[in-house]
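#random but structural
TW: two for the price of one
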Amino acid sequence: MTTALLVAQGAPAQETAAPAEPAREDLYYVGLIGSLVQLRSLESAITDDQDEITDVVADSADLNTASLIIGGHISELFHAEIRLGGGLSEAKVRNDLTISLDYFASWFFGIHYPLTDFAHGYAQFGFTHLQGEAELTNPDANRNSRYDDLAGDFPDSSFSASWLIGLDLELFDNAYLVLEGGKLFEDTVTDVTGYQFSSGLRYEF
C-alpha cells in the first residue's frame, strides 16, 4: 500500500519534467554584426606652410563595416564559421589619404566556454581575404610622402591571419547579443594592421 502511494505521488513529477535542451553541438547559427575597424601603424608627415616636412608621427584612422556570420557547433566546446562583410564608411587619414574596404571574407575555428547560465566566452582563430582601396590626392605633395606605398589596392597582402575574443549574452531562447574584438588583418608589405571591435546579434537553430 505504501509503495503504491509513493509511485502515485511520483508520477505527476515525471509528467511535468521540462524537456531536455538540445545539445549545442546539434545547432547551427546565423548572425549580423557591425564593427569599428581601426587602422593602426600608419605614419603621417607634418609639414609647415611651405610644405616642408617638420615631423613624422604615428597615425591611425577608423572605418565601419557590417558582417553576416554563418556557422555551426562542432561539439559542446568547438565551433566553425564563415563571415562575409563589407565597408559602410571610409577612413579619412590626415592630409589627403582615404582608405576603404570593399569586401572581406573570413573563416574561423573557435572554442567557447560557459561563464554563467546565460553567458559564454569564446576565442577564434582563422584567415581573412579582403579587398579595398587607398585613394591619395595630391600625391606629389611632401605632406603625402609617407603614403606612397599605400596608394592603390589596399592592403597589398590581401590574405591574412585573423583572431578575435568575444562574449555572448543570451537575450531569450537561442538568441544572443555578441560583443567581441580582435585583429581583422595585417598587411605584411606596409605593416598596417586592422583591429575590429564589434557588436551584434546571433541566432542558433
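TW: number two ↓
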Amino acid sequence: MTAPQELAILLRRLEGGNVLHPDGEYFGTTRRILDDEAVRFMGNFWDYSHAFCITTSDPKLIARLDDAIAKQRASEAYIAAREENRVFHASWPPCGALGEQAQGCAS
C-alpha cells in the first residue's frame, strides 16, 4: 500500500465515524509541532485499532487533520469514550507510587 492510500484510509476513519482514542488528548500526543513548518499527528482509534503517526508540513493536510480531530473531540461518541478512558486512568496508581516514573506523569 502506498503512503497516499494509507493517508486516504486514515482520513476516512477520522472523518467517517471511527472514534479517535482519547489517550492522545490525555497524554498530549495527538498533535506536536516539530518546528516552524512540520507537525506530527499521532493516535489510534477507540473502536478500531489503526495506529497512525503522520509528520507533514503541508498546510492543507495540517488543516484537514486539525479539523477532523476537532470534530472528533466535539462528538458525543468521543466525549463518552473520553469519560470511560478517564475512569480507566483514574484506576492507575499515583505518580511515584511504583518507585518509578509512571506513564502519563509529568517529569
